[in-house]
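Hi there,

I know you've been waiting on this one. I reran it after we fixed the sequence typo, so this is the corrected version. Both the input and the resulting structure follow.
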Amino acid sequence: MSQIISFFTSLSLWGSIVNCLTVILGAAVGLVVKRFMVKGAEGSTISRISDALMKGIGLCVLLIGITGAITTNNIIIVIISIVIGTVIGELCNLDRHFERLGQKIEDKTRGRFGNITQGFVSASLLFCVGAMAIVGSLNSGLMGDHSMLYTKSLLDMISAFVFASTLGIGVMFSAGLVLLYQGTITLLAEWVAPLLNTATVTEMTAVGSLLIIGLALNMLGITKLKIMNYVPSVFLPIILCLFIK
C-alpha cells in the first residue's frame, strides 16, 4: 500500500490532481445541499434564502479580493496590467465566448443545471488566482513537494461546497480549469520558475484580486462587469516586472 501511495505522490501532477478531485467533491456535496434546500423550501422562501446566501458569499469574496489586492508592491504595474489586459480582453471578447460555451452546455442539458457560466467563471477565478496556485504548482514541478497544493485543495473543497450550493454545477466544471492551469505550471516549472519570482507572483495576485473584487460586486448586484474580459490582465505582470522594478 505504501508503495502505491509513494508512486502517486511521486507524480509531478499529483498535487494538481488532488486539487481537481477535491473541487469536484466539494461541489458535489454543495449540489446535494442545494437540491435539499429547493425541496425543503417553498415559494418566496427559497428565493429569499438563495438571495441572502448569494449576498453573503459575495461579501466574503469581496474580503478575499481586498486582502489580495493590497499586497501589491508596485501600483503602476497593477494599473498598466488592468489597462492593457482590458483592451486585449475586449478585443477578443472573452466574456462573450464563455457565455456562448455555457449556453451550449445549458442547451444540451436542457437547462436542468441552471446558469453554468456564472458558477464556472466565479469558481475558476477564485481557485486559480492567487499565490498558492502558482507557488504550489512550482513546488510540485521543481521539488515534488505537494504540501502547499494539499492545503489549497482543502480550502478549495470548502469554497466549492459553498459556491455550488448557490451557483450550481458550473462550479464543478471549474475543476478541469484548475487541473489545466496548475498542471501546465507544474510541467513547465523548470522554464517558467525564473519568470514567476516572488515579485511577479505578488503583482499577479494583486491584479487577480482586483478581478475578484469585481466578481464580488457583480454577486452583490452593484455592477455588471464582464469579468472574463479582464482576465488577460492577470498575466501581464510576467512581462511588466521584467522592465518595471
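Quick highlight: The two ends are 50 Å apart (CA to CA).

Best,
R. S.
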